[in-house]
Amino acid sequence: MNPHLQDLHPYPFEKLRALFEGITPPAGYSPIRLSIGEPQHATPAFIRESLVDNLGGLANYPTTQGSDALRKSIASWLERRYSLPAVDPATQVLPVNGSREALFAFAQCVVDGAKPDALVICPNPFYQIYEGAAYLAGAKPYFVNNLPDDRFASDFAAVPEADWQRVQLVYVCSPGNPTGRVLSLDEWKQLFELSDRYGFVIAADECYSEIYFDDANLPIGGLEAAHRLGRSDFRNLVMFSSLSKRSNVPGMRSGFVAGDAAILKRFLLYRTYHGCAMSPSVQAASAAAWDDEAHVAENRRLYREKFDVITPLIAAHLDVELPDAGFYLWANVSRLGLSDTEFARRLQAEYNVTVLPGSYLAREAHGVNPGAGFVRIALVADLAECIEAATRVATFAQQLSNNP
């Protein structure tokens, strides 16, 4: 067996099930699950129809590179969304079966596991796929803490020179999961300069890019930052995106990677052996989704409506602010005198609302677990259910304040 399997941690939701063992929530409260980032808005009808209309494609083996039509749709979307010059759909775009699969596979392709001291930098807290990908590629994760005192920025300047010499891959998540923070152009510039100096590859996870709250300040993407900084070849940069959150189709498992053509050429070779070609019917529906923005604007409106109402309800009792983007509230519960795990357990037991303890999304690094004391609240349910959940959270928090 692969010896690195023993390095893998239980997934956060496995820990959550163990935390809730023995709990029987009160029957008077219907369950509300705000722990998992699974979009619950309706899938647009035209995407479903496109999927059904193209079922004839199931009679054909798909190519790993995907259809010309899908790659052109993705390239055109990138050009529109990020004001990029021509993106080459043949060399700079590659469809994938959801960003999760690609984020994991990318490390297996990029990391030289023959070097026993290889490092993969991950934000902390983080999406656990980064950590698992690093371990199974034969590297070790190096965690860069995202702390509230610096608005959850990654302090790359704090990484020692000796460690940078060992870094082969850097995962960044912007907008961040769970913090919702968007990297600035200056932060991208710093990261590109470090990449030039040390030769590592940047994997930019941008799956939440289309859920934002200010039309005048769209989240900047990695490719956009590279272009604005004169790096239009996107050297050593690959971005990952997905239709799951943007178009409410997590079950379609459809996303793409784009960026450095030389890296994507090698990643395509890897994927040819990996056996991960996207179904032709899913490709057709995906192209239709990337070509349409009206449903994305409506999806964004629904999230904005929820955040406008829910954020002040929660902020009256917990330390939380509207994120830059994404659909999570990253709420600090420390002032209530409970750990994040005890808060989540009691909220489940007493009010039947499920949130995810922040410590489950982070690792202790540099003397601290940056997720400790926080809970992640995914505002994925409909408005009425989110309001009900927020009301219960507020009642619970008030109860704790009155009875410390």
UniProtKB/TrEMBL annotation:
InterPro entries linked: Aminotransferase_I/II_large (IPR004839), DapC_beta/gammaproteobac (IPR019878), LL-DAP_aminotransferase (IPR050881), PyrdxlP-dep_Trfase (IPR015424), PyrdxlP-dep_Trfase_major (IPR015421), PyrdxlP-dep_Trfase_small (IPR015422)
Zinc as UniProt keyword: no
Main enzyme class: transferase
Cofactor: pyridoxal 5'-phosphate
EC numbers for this chain: 2.6.1.17
GO biological process: lysine biosynthetic process via diaminopimelate
Pfam families: Aminotran_1_2
Keywords, sorted A to Z: Aminotransferase, Transferase
Gene3D superfamilies: Aspartate Aminotransferase, domain 1, Type I PLP-dependent aspartate aminotransferase-like (Major domain)
Domain of life of the source: Bacteria
Record GO terms (molecular function): pyridoxal phosphate binding; succinyldiaminopimelate transaminase activity
SUPFAM superfamilies linked to this entry: PLP-dependent transferases (SSF53383)
NCBIfam families for the chain: DapC_gpp
Protein name (database record): Succinyldiaminopimelate transaminase
Organism: Zoogloea oleivorans
